[in-house]
Specification:
homodimer, eight-stranded mixed sheet, 24% strand
Chain lengths: 450, 450
């Protein structure tokens, strides 16, 4: 006879009770709770209370005991191109232009279609779920195909309605991209786990006229805007030559700066530009691995944080990372911000975790819904086991999350209260099928290898 | 009936045949072999040949099939303080002096004795073996206790005979440290897996007189010297104030620069100093995580490599890393060298692997014995599985080792032909015992937590 049977009249029935050794709420009080339980019903967090009390108050369809684990909000990858997962490691250690012209772009031209994007996005979802990522902010061709993979995996995503000027297999010109984007957007409307941003690729690939259209549509449809911004010095020089100003000034003059703008990278920023980002409430998706690997530079994270800019973290695509691993990305962000600012107090562990959770939720306009473990929020949560020798002893689970853990310590990933990944097993991804998918694409891509 | 039975008269009997999908030899030809086998007898690599051929020629006591794995030389951690493992994450995100004075040093004064060092070193060995490290270059108090843990774990180590001027529980003055070091050295003499360096801690803690003694003993006993050098700007300023010159110049004048010197960190180096390091054949143990985390700075790795200085990689201690994870350290070294030099061709994947294997072996004077998979060398080897979704697809196993893999993909670690770690299981470390050891020390250290 279980506790729930012995006094069932007095017990409240819920979907799940998750008992954890530690809960890092990432709420405004930055609480680290010990021996607490999270109560989940209808995809939502009903409460967080001491486990001893939870055992007296609740009966649950699923009761999970995580005696050696820390429970954290689901990680949010604020900038990625999920469907590049099948190009992971296809070319490295090359100058950017050689990498793009000789490897990445030819590979994309050869393989990218709806099927490729669906398959590659499913691989990306598998990788992300097993590493504790519950939501990602994407930009790629055929977003409806990414949506299909996201739907299968049971993740949350904000999908970019990608816009370019030049023709690809996907679309012929900016208007065609926009139209295809809106059709895609309609296809996932009503899905509670999916939202959209318009995603004009970058200032160097988008005309003023198209940016103006993007702005109009974003206002009309109440959508976010997701773009690359000030990633490289080349991009800035090119903008000077073509427009007589830096890309950010151009976006400012076009009226694109605002709290619905997520700017990926933000590596090269003048103090006045940091000021403007803060004033307009823009969000930066900091991508430290990609910035180092492609020699874009080191973003001025300490200065951005000092000025109060909302900085979150992205992996970028697997072709330039080569992981979609938010634990590893948080670690690098925290280390690099210290080394670059020469101040060891820069980007402490809890702040790195905020950047990958609540701050990213804010950047997506979802801070009321996800990003922390609080009553009323969606139950997007991750359990990380802190008992292996490599993470022992544990004096501070938040320090361990950032500096010590790897994604291998993630044991459970819930999205909207549903357990989507647990100890190597996915709820809706069949490993043998996904292996076959990877094996089918690999020979087609291999010829573009460095 | 097996192949070995069917034609046993024609077969050569060996200890082990390890079949691998890929073998990265890290020899002078930088060979990447596919479907090859490594033949091991009496701790030594007898040959590397196509698996089809190996099956015809050999019978083995142990025949290991690694169909999805890359086999690499054992990783060598060129700078660590293994016994700081029990202080992992005890204090982070603090300025160096506060970190040392308020947390690390009080903790060390309270707990460090022979038992602590033995126990903490065993935890470090467990972590390192499971992450593919077969050998480490250590510096800490009570090296005979570290040797005892290393002996139990069955690893290889070069142990520092630590020298300081000031009294600790371990020793009273420089002469006492030296004497205790030589006694320790004698205790592991004859052990084929252990070697020694004299380890004067750093120019800012060691007098000229003591450095002179260290030099004399190192020459007499044919030992290496392991020291910290140019880790921080403070250290350089202090040396200017006290000696009227930079630490490296002081070491040069004292005659300490030479091919038996391993200098940890080397963060702040003038072009002329890089020139001198190259000329004298000194070795740098680059510690990128620790240098970022403690805001020491970013070492000029591209310039060092350009000038031909032998640069290897160390994790430093777990109090400032907080991992003893050479895969993660190689990745950061490769990424950071690119970002700092703004040249994406800097420190390509194979070179990062060399730094953690053959170049580290050279730094320890062991390049004839370890550091590559070649006939006649000790069978220190690691298998890394490249079939998980997070490392799929695989176009280039060397790229994956550096940019994509985590230590969780290490499946087998051999030291001198003996399998010391395999899929979570250690040959000589009992997990429950080690857990109890950790649990016994944690409460004693907890009070020094940040």
């Amino acid at each position: 006879m279980t506790i729930s049977d012995s006094s069932s009249t007095a017990l409240t029935h819920v979907d799940a009770v998750i008992e954890a050794r530690w809960v890092v709420t990432v709420d405004s009080n930055k609480r680290l709770l010990e021996h607490h339980s999270v109560i989940v019903k209808d995809a939502v967090i009903m409460g967080v209370l001491p486990t001893a009390l939870a055992r007296l108050k609740y009966a649950a369809s699923s009761w999970v005991c995580l005696d050696e684990h820390v429970l954290i909000p689901g990680l949010i990858n604020l900038h990625t191109h999920a469907a590049m997962s099948l190009m992971r490691g296809i070319a490295d250690d090359l100058p950017l232009m050689q990498w793009l012209h000789e490897h990445l772009w030819p590979a994309e031209r050869a393989v990218v279609d709806r099927h490729y994007v669906k398959d590659a996005s499913l691989l990306a979802c598998a990788e992300m779920l097993s590493g504790g990522t519950t939501c990602f902010n994407d930009m790629y061709f055929y977003p409806e195909a990414t949506a299909s993979a996201v739907g299968q995996a049971g993740m949350r995503a904000n999908l970019g309605l990608t816009v370019l000027e030049f023709p690809t297999h996907y679309a012929s010109d900016a208007d065609d991209y926009l139209q295809k984007g809106f059709e895609a957007h309609d296809s996932w409307r009503g899905n509670a786990l999916m939202t959209s941003s318009i995603a004009p690729h970058a200032p160097y690939t988008i005309s003023n006229q198209t940016f103006e259209k993007v702005l109009t549509y974003a206002e009309q449809l109440d959508l976010g805007i997701h773009t690359h911004l000030h990633e490289t010095l080349d991009e800035i020089a090119q903008s000077h030559a073509q427009y007589g100003m830096r890309p950010m000034q151009r976006l400012a003059e076009l009226g694109l700066l605002g709290p619905n703008l997520v700017a990926a990278h933000g590596v090269h920023l003048l103090p006045a530009e940091i000021e403007i980002l803060a004033e307009f409430g823009c969000h930066i998706a900091h991508c430290p691995t990609s910035n180092l690997k492609l020699t874009s530079g080191i973003a001025p994270v300490a200065a951005l944080l000092d000025r109060g800019v909302n900085v979150s973290i992205g992996t970028d695509g697997a072709a330039s990372n080569n992981r979609l691993d938010m634990l590893s990305e948080m670690r690098l962000a925290a280390l690099l911000a210290k080394g670059a600012s020469m101040d060891a107090t820069t980007l402490p562990a809890h702040q790195a975790l905020e950047m990958a959770t609540i701050k990213a939720a804010k950047a997506l306009g979802l801070e009321e819904k996800i990003g922390s473990i609080e009553m009323g929020k969606q139950a997007d949560m991750v359990a990380v086991k802190l008992s292996d020798f490599a993470v022992s002893p544990c004096y501070d689970p938040v320090s361990h999350l950032i500096y010590t853990c790897g994604r291998e310590h993630v044991t459970h990933t819930w999205v909207a209260g549903s357990l989507r990944y647990c100890n190597g097993v996915y709820a809706n991804i069949e490993p043998i099928e996904l292996k076959e998918i990877i094996q089918a694409w690999q020979p087609k891509l291999k010829q573009y290898k460095h």
